[in-house]
Amino acid sequence: xxxxxxxxxxxxxxxxxxxxxxxxxxxxxxxxxxxxxxxxxxxxxxxxxxxxxxxxxxxxxxxxxxxxxxxxxxxxxxxxxxxxxxxxxxxxxxxxxxxxxxxxxxxxxxxxxxxxxxxxxxxxxxxxxxxxxxxxxxxxxxxxxxxxxxxxxxxxxxxxxxxxxxxxxxxxxxxxxxxxxxxxxxxxxxxxxxxxxxxxxxxxxxxxxxxxxx
Length: 214
What we know:
- The protein is α+β, with helices and mostly antiparallel strands and 214 residues long.
- Helix content is 49%, strand content 14%.
- It contains eight helices and five strands, in the order αββααβββααααα.
């Protein structure tokens, strides 16, 4: 069955669907579960013609959306399933008006990897001048905020920023016996002279809404 034939069949029911793709990672959304199952099977057969397969550990059907919370309770779950996409965890939540919205946060393994990378950076630059240390740290923070700074993920960015503060102060304290007396007040004075980049959303809600296509 061709893709055109599939689309013709579905057009009779006027189903809603959409997709988001980045290189070989993609999410396809359907109004009806039956359509998702049909496309998954069609995609599996199509890829098989070229000797390719869907990654089983990264491919799954997930009920997601404004009715997912209600259905999750019927299935004995406390909350709906989440989606992992491009280093972010997408989950069902509600805004201040109690309307459904898609929440996003840094995926746990990615967050752990970022913190470990920052710790390794601290060890490498331990004997640099303080101004040079701040410059190196800010390069990493700028890249992290640039990638993960999407609407709803500010809490994860703050977590990274606070961790960097602790790592940097701990590193400065370990450089000498005098450094061990480095109080938080003294450390904050250092930050005033050589500030760390504070968390900032690269893509806030107002810009994300402008990019959304429904």
